[in-house]
Amino acid sequence: MKRILTFIAMLSLAISAFASDSLTVFYRIRLDMDIDKAAQRKVVTGLQKAVEADADVVLLDLDTYGGAVDAADSIRSAILRYEKPVVAYVNMQAASAGALISIACDSIYMKTGSSIGAATVVDQSGKVMPDKYQSFMRGMMRSTAQAKGRNPEIAEAMVDTAGVLSLTPEEAVKVGYCEGIYESEVEVAEAMSGDNDFTIRNMDDDMTWIDRLIQFLLNPLLQSIFMMMIIGGIFVEIRTPGIGLPLVTAIVGALLYFAPGYVGHLAEHWEILMFVVGLILIGLEIFVIPGFGVCGISGIVIVVLSLALAMVDNVEFHRWDGTFSLEPVLMPLGIVIISSAAAVFGSVWLVRKLYPTRTFDHIALRQEMKASEGFTGVVSGLETLVGETVEVFTDMRPSGKVMTSDGRILEATLKFGGFASKGQTLKVLSAEQGRLYCDYN
Q: Residue 367 — pLDDT band, cuts 50, 70, 90?
């Protein structure tokens, strides 16, 4: 009986092992957003989670009109480095940067009515960028197509500014840029798994609240706002005395800017250290070293570079084919410079708007010393008041203020000490260095 039970247990284990081997696990990453830093982190994180889930195939469910070239390049590099198959399912658009990402995948499947292509580089207003940018994009498209055994001329034609190429599913199948036309990711999984059973695991189900928060904070608009908080806060703090809200704003902006990238493995220790060193150099230039020279300029350059480098995934400098390039950092550097300029001008405008109002008193040290309230500088010609009678304006113990017969309020001291209450009259005995010395009348 013992031998029979042992045999049954071994047989069950063998059946389970065979069943698990025949089950194909697809890990679905839904990318229905602009290609930016947040999209970059989502794909890179999704590939890592696919490894943890021991997925056989990564199914990249695409519906995007494109976005930032640097983020697309990072996604492309991550896909090319991934060791297991990555399949692109175009559902419904894979335009511009989306086309580049699709071509980097091992297989491309498309939905009826979808399209792929139109990878010409444009700015935020839709204006075609100079040929330098188009050449860079053509090179990426061509090399990516060659790496996956696709016709590089077709990929390059998608960037052609004269007659940009976009392909329908039928056209993509004809030229070898689509392995099949299916109406859902389930149909794609069925076609790829053949007779084997399969399961589709969604990345969205594996995301924690921290992942979602980081994804939200990596939004380019929010990142620009955080950057302006940093630069604007530092600028206003330098221009106003004391330590107050502007410095707190800069610190909060720095935390919100660097923390998501650091947790998401986009910003490294040395980039944050660069930012701190830059701030220290600027502080030394302002508070220690007279004038403004090498130390201050170096600090500004280091701060700007640290903010730009924190926007770029470090693996982008070393491409999948082993080459080194600084191209990915050029656009983030431009964003930092523009945001910094906007922060400085915005801070100047804000200070000028808030300064005339009492609202600004709560966030900056300001005190207007009015003569009507008894605030005066060193006043000359007070000798003429010697022998005159003055009225005590504030209680004197023994110093305070007195009001002359012509309504002037001046600093005064009881020459022989004592106390005089408001409204009492005194006689001026002498005047020295802008102060009256009085005695009881």
A: low
Given a contact cutoff of 8 angstroms between Cβ atoms, the answer to whether 29 and 58 are in contact is yes
CATH number of 371-440: 2.40.50.140
Q: What would the mean pLDDT of 3-22 be, rounded to a whole number?
A: 44
Q: Write the Ramachandran bin of 194: left for phi over 0, alpha for psi from -120 to 50, otherwise beta.
A: left
Take residue 34 and report the two structure tokens written for it: 């602009």
Q: DSSP 3-state assignment of 435?
A: strand
The structural domains of the chain, with segments of one domain joined by +, span 18-207, 216-362, 371-440
Q: Is residue 150 left, alpha or beta, with left meaning phi > 0 and alpha meaning psi from -120 to 50? A: beta
CATH superfamily of this structure's domain 18-207 = 2-enoyl-CoA Hydratase; Chain A, domain 1 (3.90.226.10)
The predicted-structure confidence for 113-171, as pLDDT tens digits, reads as follows: 999 998 888 776 678 888 877 888 888 899 999 999 999 999 999 988 777 789 999 99
Per-residue confidence band for 51, with pLDDT thresholds at 50, 70 and 90: very high
Cβ density class 314-348: b for 16+ within 10 Å, e for less: bbbeebbeeeeeebbbbbbbebbeebbeebbebbe
